[in-house]
Design goal:
The chain is of the alpha+beta class. 47% of the residues lie in helices and 12% in strands.
Amino acid sequence: MYVVSSLKKGIAAGEHSSDLARKLFLSYQTMVFKDNEDLEYTIKNTIKQHLKIPFTSIQVTGSSKTGFSFFNKTEFTEGKSDLDISIISLDLYNHFLEIAHKETLAFTKLSVFPEFKGKPTDRQFIKNLKKGFINPFFMPDCREKSEWLDFFRRLSNNYFEKFKNINGGIYSSEYFLAQSSK
């Protein structure tokens, strides 16, 4: 795979990990859409129109970008793997952070966070904030969270033959997206 050989060359040349991450996530071709670029455009354009954000804010990440998962050591499998969408938007990040701040009374009322697998999601949400990332799934229950999850659920249903799920997360900046690969 061209991604692996290119990354190995970069590592051997001593390239900084954030440069390698930017190449991988922001520059290299999306493997799952190779020879089907119109599908990538259609999905991204649907997200752009729904969220009212710039098209260039929407990036494909994870195994669908590279063709395999660096973390799980598994290949992307059509219909069984997720399509991970990373949205780089400080405005959207701040919007969701403000909602969480209000819903939790400035993070003093953590009981409003739902449980996932028997554990409250407050720690995961706050851990992600430290990484400049918001996964709305871990937010306190609120209208905006429900709308986000409903939108991505409907989008997933439209492309179920290609992806198990389509998930969206929000990064405050390109810097934090690049840092997430560490």
